[in-house]
Write a structure and sequence with these properties.
The protein contains 13 helices and 3 strands, in the order ββααβααααααααααα. Strand 1 and strand 2 form a beta hairpin. The protein is elongated, with a radius of gyration of 33 Å. The N and C termini lie far apart (68 Å). Among the domains are: 99 residues, Potassium Channel Kv1.1, Chain A (2-Layer Sandwich), CATH 3.30.710; 88 residues, no CATH class. It has 297 residues and is mostly helical. Helix 7 packs across helix 13. Zinc ion (ZN) binds next to helix 10. The site of zinc ion has 6 residues, from helix 10.
Length: 297
């Protein structure tokens, strides 16, 4: 069809190069922003919903979103958080989002609040590379429903020395979780002391028929227990994990003890599963804390 002279031909928007921008003025406290609201709506479900409601135009009032009548965001978001979110929305190769924990956490907070899944997933990934303290990761995971941050950090915290928990860390994981960790540590110490003070000899142990000097074997075993194993269990800074004791014994010399008897003792020690008590206490504490956080059913 050829254009008709004299008739008005309605132009069409170019599919790629017709910028869909709508600049509006937004006020937060005493700060004005001038932003493309369409760009924001595309990112955040909450804003999409808010701005799809046609504005009520009161007669005599200047249009909403102009300098005379800015859209009020005061109370919805802070100036810094909104600025951080805009940094993400306007990011490009020349101006990437700064790898600053405060900015990334602000974007996480806003994207969580406004249901902006792309921004949320993106900064979540970036925060994981920051190596923030474990207690802070627990706090953020709980605040923004990121369970994997909590389930990753808690097993590490359960094993961390109690004197490494600052007041801030305790407030981040919560006093109840900290009490659970402290309590489990006491149970653990009792169990370790019990194992240290009573050399592990299975009660049903019968000497092997080929051993002609078994009373000497028992003597060496007990002596080495005190001089070697106990020292490692009660070590003030690097206490040995209980499950590493069989390996320590196997690798150490037991002069005077029949090698077969030593091997047999280690085998029975492993079979008794008593050394697994430490792992059981750790696992139990992790599960109790996750249940307390309502992460584990
Ligand atoms: Zn023996």
């Amino acid at each position: 069809m050829s254009p008709t002279y004299g008739a008005v031909v309605r132009p069409i928007k170019h599919p790629e190069f017709y910028a869909d921008v709508h600049m509006v003025e937004i006020q937060i406290e005493n700060t004005l922003f001038r932003v493309d609201i369409n760009g924001l709506r595309r990112q955040a479900k909450v804003l999409e919903d808010v701005f799809s409601i046609p504005p009520s135009v009161a007669t005599g009032q200047p249009e909403e979103g102009t300098a005379e009548n800015p859209i009020q965001f005061t109370g919805l978001v802070t100036v810094d958080d909104f600025a951080a979110f805009l940094t993400w929305v306007g990011r490009n190769d020349e101006r990437p989002v700064p790898q600053d924990p405060q900015i990334l956490i602000a974007i996480l907070r806003v994207s969580h609040m406004w249901h902006a899944p792309k921004a949320f997933e993106d900064v979540k990934y970036q925060i994981e590379w920051l190596n923030l303290p474990h207690a802070q990761m627990v706090e953020l995971g709980l605040q923004y429903n990121i369970d994997e941050w909590v389930t990753t950090a808690i097993p590490i915290l359960v094993k961390a020395p109690l004197n490494t928990f600052t007041d801030l860390a305790v407030s981040q994981i919560g006093p109840t979780a900290f009490r659970m960790i402290a309590k489990s540590r006491e149970t653990l110490t009792t169990q370790r002391n019990l194992i240290a003070t009573v050399p592990l000899i299975p009660s049903d142990y019968r000497p092997l028929p080929h051993c002609s000097s078994h009373s000497r074997c028992l003597h060496v075993w007990k002596e080495r227990w005190i001089m070697l194993v106990v020292m490692e269990i009660i070590h003030p800074t690097r206490p040995i994990p209980l499950t590493s004791i069989p390996g320590l014994i196997t690798a150490s010399a037991y002069p005077g003890m029949t090698p077969h008897c030593k091997e047999d003792f280690v085998r029975l020690m492993l079979a008794s599963q008593r050394l697994g008590v430490e792992e059981k206490i750790w696992d139990g504490t992790v599960n109790a804390i996750l249940r307390h956080y309502n992460i584990l059913a």
